[in-house]
Design brief:
With 144 residues, the protein is mainly alpha-helical. The chain is built from 7 helices and no strands.
Length: 144
């Protein structure tokens, strides 16, 4: 089961990188329809693993003394200017890069249990899109 999900995550990211966003989104939607919430958390971590590889390729490997975070222009709070689903993706990837599984899980649970039924799917889609864009940025000659 885990191998099948991992394969579908790779396929979804691959389609995104190839510009086949609709197919990428469909794979993610099928996973969401057929998997448990905990398996979808695993899928989110799988997507973040790909983002981590792309960001590591671009910026190099960092020691435990390094911390990934989100910074905004003008000192504004991210939650005041960044849409919730975009902020989720950025924070989830940062938490994953920082090996902060407690925060990653808390972010996922907050999105999944939100009273807004559109939030969790938007968060997962944005996580996938951000990862696809990171792979594009890390791949020489892959720009569109």
């Amino acid at each position: 089961m885990h191998d099948e999900i991992a394969e579908q995550v790779w396929e979804a990211v691959g389609h995104w990188v190839e510009g086949r966003h609709e197919e990428s989104t469909q794979i993610l939607a099928r996973l969401a329809e057929t998997q448990t919430p905990s398996m979808m958390y695993g899928a989110a971590c799988g997507i973040a693993t790909v983002a981590k590889a792309a960001l590591t390729k671009m910026y190099g490997s960092h020691s435990h003394a390094c911390f990934w975070g989100i910074r905004t222009v003008g000192g504004l709070r991210p939650e005041d200017i960044i849409p919730a689903h975009h902020l989720f993706a950025a924070r989830f990837i940062a938490a994953y890069l920082n090996n902060d599984t407690d925060t990653a899980l808390a972010l996922y649970q907050a999105a999944y249990t939100s009273s807004d039924p559109e939030l969790w799917p938007a968060c997962m889609h944005t996580l996938l899109a951000a990862t696809g864009e990171a792979v594009l940025a890390a791949t020489p000659g892959a720009g569109r």
